[in-house]
Design brief:
single chain; mainly alpha; 8 helices; about 75% helix
Length: about 150
Amino acid sequence: MAATLYDTAMTLRARLIGPLSESDLDSIYQDYAVIGTALQVAEGAWPRDRAAFAVYWAHQLEGLSVDETVWRTSDDLLHPHTGPWWLRVAMPLARLVTAGLLPAGVRSAYRLPWGPRRERRFRLALGTIATVNRMLPKRAREWPKNFLLRDLD
C-alpha cells in the first residue's frame, strides 16, 4: 500500500504541478519510508533509494495478478452502491483518473475500459484539475490534507 501511495503521489505531483528537484524528490521519498513504517512495512523492507524503488515497483507490476476476487473487490470500490451522495457523484471522475493513472497492462488486468476517447477525457480532467489547483489559494489547496491529518500526532 505504501508503495502504491508513493507512486501515485509522485505521478500526480508531476502531472498536476510539475517536476521537483532531485533533492526534493529524495526528501519526499525518505518521508514515504516513514509512512511505510506506519503502514507496517517491515524495518529495512522499504527500498533504499528511488532507483531501488523503481526496480522494486517494476517487479511488482510485472508480477501483479488479478483474480476474480480481486477484480470484484476493485469493482465494488469503483462502483459504490452506498455512501454519501457526493461520493457516488464523484465516482465517474475517480474511475477515469484511476484508470488513466494505471499502466496499460494493469488497467487491462482490472478490466477497466480504455481507448482514445477516454484518454482525451483523462487528459482534459487532469488539465482542468491542474488549472483549478493553480488558481486556488494555498489554504484551500491544502485543506484536504490538513483535514485528514488533523487527528494524527
